[in-house]
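hey so i finally got around to running both of the ones u sent me last week. sorry it took forever, my laptop kept dying halfway thru and i had to restart like 3 times lol. anyway pasting them below in the order u listed, first the sequence line then the structure token line for each. didnt double check formatting much so if smth looks off just lmk and ill redo it

first one:
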Amino acid sequence: MEKSVESMRKIVLSMDFLEPAYGYNKLSKEEVIIMKNNCFTNQVAIVTGAGSGIGKGIALDFARKGAKVMVTDINEEAMAATKKQILELNGYAETYYMDVSDQEIVEKVVTQIYSKHQKIDILVCNAGLTSPPVLGIDMPEEYWDKLLKVHLYGTQYCVKACGNYMKEAKYGRIILMSSLAGVFGLAGNVNYAAAKTGLIGVNYTLAKELGPYGITVNAVQPGIIRTPMAAPALATLEEALVGDTPVKRIGESEDVAHAVSFFCQKESGFITGTVLRVDGGYILQSGMDSIMLQMCQQ
């Protein structure tokens, strides 16, 4: 009997590299699955840009795993749709209008959330936007201002507003949403590439600064993901993009959500300052630059 129990224990521990240090060796296989599916129970997770695309996928994934999801966006109709889907999953969601480029609004919303829940466990800085493709030497200054204000300043505003509460609690999980453009640039979108590259430096620095307070900071770099933002390109280029992707498909928001979920689990507390690509191997063989240059000339 003891040998059978020990054998089962080894099987359970082999699942997804679960470690004895977290007590999984004392649980049945079914109990482990339940725990994994409810790994964010009662945790408060703020997701910016959660009205659509990747942010919506992340919000839904958190809800399925038990989190209290704070859905923030500038599109109130889209936020309401995300909340509706979460409620249909028997999840918990609240919606907040939040323009991350406005520091006053960010601080007001975060304070409101903390006052109600008395904690903030997870922050996912996902809100973003792009501008029409144009050569860098011809790019209007307002394109730069708008992109940097959302991606870099917006991230700083959110981290600053949430970080002090996390520091006080000596616990937190912060995720920054970068891009493959932060690895090899993106012709026609020098401002976007600069912003996404900048977030990698922010990621490394915050990980060093906040680690002593029990806060981990990690970044995700999505590849070609099926979102409203990518829809125009996919309408004409999907076949070519799939051909350039080793796994031979376009990514879904759920693919990114799974990566975010991994970083945000309590068991991931020794992982910080990491940058994880979620691109189906696309970076290994890219034709995106030639495509974007063609778009610049249209």
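and the second one:
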Amino acid sequence: MNLTSTVSRHGCRLLAAAMALNVAAGAFAQATPPPTAEPAPQTELPEARQILQDAIKAMGGKDAVDRLESSKMKLEMGPVGGSAVSNATLYWAKSDQFFIKGVQQGRVQTIGFDGKIGWASNPNTGGYDLLNAEQIAWARDQVEIQMQARILEKDFQKIETVDLSDFDGQKCYKIHLVQEVEGMPGNQSDHPLPQQHAFFNAKTGLMEGKQVSVQTPMGPMTVTLKFKDWKQIDEIMFFRRMTVEQTGRPPQEMRFTEIELNNVDPSVFEAPEAVKKLAEERQKARDPEKEDKSGDEKPDAPGTDKN
């Protein structure tokens, strides 16, 4: 399933196009990777999961990350070195809630999750659409874009250190990532998945980037993401720029203009009344007989005779 296009249809095309971190994994999930074999791992390389743990440590440590209760991040997107063509604000809470507001050419689009209901504004109808669990998970990864080491450990069933090589001018450990998609097991040759790699600075431990290579109907394609300008805010390190380089297209850039921690008003995550009503209507449609949850006896239907 192409999550990028799916979320786009639910009023989030701005973010789906710009936040290419999971576009690389999602948009190309059904494409065939180039017929190049993964090189055999070098000897004496650090174990991949240890590299992920070191990356979290380099960001400030697991305890510091665990102490983070909420965040608000403002970002703008456009060509590298050019003016912004769109912007977005990402709100996140440790209580598994998030809200995204994107603006492009004066058009506002939103997507949110209050802990129970996921929704997105629909620009075609002017209303809202409810999101399923898969779409909510995809959007959550976009909001948690700064926590890549954790996302990789969670989302990929197999990770393996394969090389120590140059990436964007830095010596980096190269980790091969294998993700199994439902209905497309990665260990079956007739359902191959994209070649995905993450790069971690061998000196600082921080994540430098991610790369995905696929074979599309238009030919080979590679998407490279580079995380730049790491700076500390409170206890944690964040990257302030992310560049996106894609075969055949000019490079794009995401610039974080504001990062604020532990100061988000909980009301930001509240679902609109129209979304609540939509969720109630869907629940009734799924279970029309479940009207009385108190356990009391339901009244007889009109025209029903007990005798």
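quick thing i noticed on the 2nd:
The two ends are 55 Å apart (CA to CA).
anyway thats it, ttyl
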